[in-house]
Design goal:
globular, 118 residues, alpha+beta, four-stranded antiparallel beta sheet
């Protein structure tokens, strides 16, 4: 379980470095983790529950990112005003990932994204 967005980013960076993921892909993955973790903290907070971050590498060409939380509230891509300081996270995830989707869980949901590393 993760308690904070910076903790999630540091953990992702550490794992991606260990896996020797190329810099461009690693930066995209870190940004995806950060955006999804921020959404979990801002919009899906449930008392006494944390969010989870999981990274999976196939060893060749893709890393999968999963950020799970206990809230049943589903995220929706927004169309923010040009001056807005937030509301672009899911659109950013969609732009950086090869694919992404929402996955249901017994409690809450998971936002999944796949990033190509080559």
């Amino acid at each position: 379980m993760t308690r904070s967005v910076p903790e999630a980013r540091r953990g992702a960076r550490s794992v991606l470095t260990e896996w020797r993921i190329p810099t461009d892909a690693a930066e995209a993955i870190e940004l995806i983790v950060s955006e999804l973790a921020t959404n979990a903290v801002r919009h899906a907070r449930v008392l006494d529950r944390f969010f989870e971050v999981a990274l999976t590498y196939d060893g060749q060409k893709a890393v999968e990112v999963e950020v799970s939380d206990a809230s049943p509230r589903l995220p929706e891509p927004q169309v923010p005003h040009l001056d807005a300081e937030s509301g672009r996270g899911l659109r950013l995830v969609a732009a950086l990932a090869e694919s992404w989707e929402l996955r249901g869980r017994v409690i809450g949901k998971t936002v999944w994204a796949r990033v190509l590393t080559q």
